[in-house]
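Intended use. Records like the one below are meant for learning the mapping from a protein sequence to its folded structure. Do not use them to infer anything beyond what is encoded.
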Amino acid sequence: EVLLVESGGGLVQAGGSLRLTCVASGFVFGHHAIAWFRQAPGEEREGLACISNSDGTTNYADSVKGRFTISRDTAKNTVYLQMNSLKPEDTAVYYCAADRLIPYCRSTYSLGIEYYYWGRGTEVTVSS
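Structure written out for the chain above:
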């Protein structure tokens, strides 16, 4: 069974930091790119960052570039999202997802269309 399990969310003050963790199991980790998404209430899902599991290349959305860092530990089948300088508008449920087929980030990853495996999410709340 394919599983992606997110953790690390919580309540933090504006300007603070959180590190989200995504642990993957049930598939060959190195064969699938992993991305982080978020969805705030009443908003569309937003792709934030992607990491290639072929070479570790990363891509970021403009909204988080310079504040968020995606990384991986291939020995642990784990991807992280380090979030710094958090803002109230970062409040959302954060999801990790795995590309259905390829280990590198598609240029369209932020749409999430080719991301077949999803976790259940972890909630992040940033207070002002």
